[in-house]
Specification:
By secondary structure, this protein is α/β, with parallel strands linked by helices. The chain has one domain: Purple Acid Phosphatase, chain A, domain 2 (4-Layer Sandwich), CATH 3.60.21.10. The protein has six helices and 13 strands. Helix 1 runs parallel beside helix 2 (50-59).
């Protein structure tokens, strides 16, 4: 069995520093074989930059997924086209967008295919259908173990996609809402699932953003600079224990450190 740690959206410098402090011990204690982290908010004021991506990798992350803020920062474009940087964007973006939506973590004894997908319900409806895009990608896969980050707003869309892929992928974990759900499970076909893995960032915030700024924006409906909060942090993640021979999940453990 291999243990894959999937980490919720890492929020800015404060979240990255907290990850740097705790990830080595988690990997050792839980015997983690591979680490996937969503880094689309890792740069301060959101998005991802070469510097924040490098920091995440130096923390011990093996592959970085993203989402609706994939291209928030122009300096990020080069990341996606750099074959030496394990950073992917949602696979259902148009083909002309920088980068690719799927990469492999090669552990030597086993290869893990990671797919990044984005929802369209309540988000960007012009993206390709995540169900059809999944079918296309999975029709060409060679790896036994496949893990998907579904970056989506609607819990129903995440659940429906996981059920659609049950038995065809090893695990599906949701990101984007920054709130960890308590529904970790193994679906009937052997696919591990959690609706949202949560975030790694400040506890006293509104999903990572300064409380005052978030309230001002919601009350006034006016443009407000949504700076990330600071202070005490938490680390949300999930561990999928996956059978190397079958590619099925055999255990799911939710992680919440604060």
């Amino acid at each position: 069995m291999i243990n894959v740690l999937c980490i919720g959206d890492v929020i800015g410098t404060v979240g990255m520093k907290y990850l740097h402090r705790h990830l080595p011990s988690i990997k050792k204690i839980k015997r983690i074989d591979a680490v996937i982290a969503n880094g689309e908010n890792s740069a301060d004021t959101n998005g991802i930059t070469p510097d924040s991506a490098e920091y995440l990798l130096n923390c011990g992350v093996d592959l970085i997924t993203t989402g609706n803020h994939s291209f928030q920062r122009k300096e990020s474009y080069s990341l996606y086209d750099n074959s030496n940087m394990p950073v992917i964007r949602p696979a259902n973006y148009p083909n002309k967008a920088p980068g690719i939506g799927s990469r492999v973590i090669d552990l030597g004894r086993v290869r893990i295919r990671v797919i990044n997908m984005m929802g369209t319900v309540g988000m960007n409806p012009v993206l390709d259908c995540p169900f059809d895009t999944s079918d296309r990608l999975l029709s060409n896969k060679d790896e036994k173990i496949v893990i998907m980050d579904i970056h989506a707003e609607a819990t129903a869309e995440k659940r429906a996609l996981a059920c659609y892929l049950d038995g065809r992928v090893s695990a599906v974990f949701g990101t984007h809402t920054h709130v960890q759900t308590a529904d970790e499970q193994i679906l009937p076909g052997g696919t591990g699932f959690i609706t949202d893995v949560g975030m790694t960032g400040p506890v006293n915030s509104v999903i990572g953003v300064s409380i005052d700024a978030a309230i001002e924006k919601m009350k006034t409906k006016m443009p407000v600079r949504l700076n990330y909060a600071d202070g005490q942090c938490m680390l949300n993640a999930v561990i999928f224990g996956i059978d190397e021979k079958t590619g099925r999940t055999v255990s799911v453990e939710r992680i919440n450190i604060s």
